[in-house]
Every structure is written in C-alpha cells, then in structure tokens.
C-alpha cells in the first residue's frame, strides 16, 4: 500500500482508508503472464482528480499511474447542445460498439486495462498479438485508448465488425495526466504506426455539425452501428456522444433479456433518448410508428425469450465464443471473471489452427431465479 500512497501523493493511513472503504481494489492476478507487475490496484470510484478506473501499479522498475478514461457526456438535443458546448471545427467520429480498454507498456510488455481499471488477461493476450512495441518505446508516457470489438469479445460480442477481436484507437493520451492528443495529431500518429482508428466520418464547423450528426446517425443506424462521438479537433473541450435509435433499442433488448439484472438501469435513459431523437428528427407519422414498434419489440421480445429459456432449459445465460492462444491465459481469464463476481461456465477448449476455441455461458442468476419463482406461482 506504500506504493499507492506514494503514487497518489497520500499518507499511508489515507491509502489504507481507501482500501477499507472498497475504493481501492486489487487489479491484477499474480502470474508470469503479468511478469512486470509486482502489485496493482484500481480506483473503484472517482477520488479527487483521479477518475474511476485509474490503475496504480508497482512494476519491477517503476511506479505507474494509468488514469481512468473520462466519462463522456451525452447530448439529447443536438442543435443547442453542440452550439453551446463547442466553438469552431469539430470531428464527428464513429462510436464503436465494444468495450473500452487502455493499452499501455509496463516494464517489457504490453497490458490491456479495462474501463474499470483491471488488467484483463484475455484482452492483454490479444493486444500483444496486434500492437508492435515501437510506438510505446518511442512514447513511453502515452497510452492508446481503444474500443475492442468483434464476435469473439467476452463482454460485447458483435459480428458487424468481423471475426475475432479488433482494436480501434479513438484517443491517444498521456498516462499520468490524461491529456489527449488533438484529433489531427492522433491521425498522424496512427498513420505512422499503422493503428486502426475509430472512423472519423467528417470534420464540420459547429454551425452545421448538428445536421452532419443527424445524417451520420441515420446512416449508421441503418447499418446497426452504435452512434457518434463529437470532438473538438484540439481536444481542449470534452467530447460529446450521441447514439442511434437502433443502438438504444439493442441496449434495451439486452437489458430486458436479463431484466432482473439490468432493466431498471437501462430503461428510462434509453426511452428518453428515443423521445428526444424522434422530436428533433421531425419524423413523419410512419417513421414515428416504426420507432414505436422497434422500441416495444426491444422490450417485450427478449423478456419472452428469457421466460421460454427458464421453462425449457432451466436458466437464462449469455453465450460468447472466445479464442485463446495459450491455455494458461484461459485459466487466468476464468480467475479474472471469478474475481469480478461473474458466474460463468466454459466448454472444453477445442484446437483451431494454433489457437483454442472456448464457448462461455454467463449465467444470469437473478433473472433466472425471478422467472422460475413466478412460473411456480410466486408474486412480483
């Protein structure tokens, strides 16, 4: 704990208090796969200037503070919000639908840090296969903020991005301060080192940015994609996000599939987004009717599917296909999920051209138990 106090500029008793209050949590599993890291903790909540998900690590030769990724605020009505928030030119960037990771070099190896500040073995293995070390040797103070997407994601599997797990860089930031590179500087670095960037759809003056965003969102929605992030090109002002109707409904569908775990948290915000988007887009009566049908189906259909699953199979589970290149990483990942409180079952690994395919079932016990009780005559 002494190293945490030193890294954050605290006294040791103050650092201990953070641990006692469950704000600090152990963030890495001790194993040779994480050979550079002696100890690591994350911040479960925002603390002072440090964001939730900040990682504090003691490595073989240094102390590392990997700042948590800042929360991005959401626009509900585009025109007044963008005009009020931004000045001059903005970049309209696709918001990829995956999970947020920061790729950093600590010691001799690369590590993937999740949004909550844990070092994920599965994602770390993929990152080491994808990213060369030259960028990190040239820029040891920087981190790559990426969206990990694809159909082999353990957290947000989506087949629209193709097979496997792919990393799209959306920000490049200073590890210790979170200061971002400007959008055009990020593009230049990505070209130099061969990174995939989250697509920048358009640069626009803020006076017409809302029109450009509406056009982009309507097109992305038809493709089943998530939405956009609007960024000040200098990154001096915080970004703003805006999602498609299809993404809102997809979120609702997921939440109501496992309604006793997630529905309350997801429902109101997504329905409110739909209402304001419908109003601002000036929909025809038919377009509005289609939105209503889409919204209703995203709520009711997944709940009925879950009821059927409990009746016929005895449980509700989320299924994912994963690929490992080292079976030790598979064992590490199982332990990682256990520490996260995730109840999951795995198939036996099956060899596939030098890798191993594993199918994971994450049991949703709260929804399963609730449906089972109701089907047996219980009360709501």
Automatic annotation (TrEMBL):
Residues 89-243 form the RNA ligase domain. InterPro entries: Lig_Pab1020_C, RNA_ligase_dom_REL/Rnl2, RNA_ligase_Pab1020. Residues 254-378 form the RNA ligase Pab1020 C-terminal domain. This is Y414 protein. It comes from Archaeoglobus veneficus (strain DSM 11195 / SNP6).
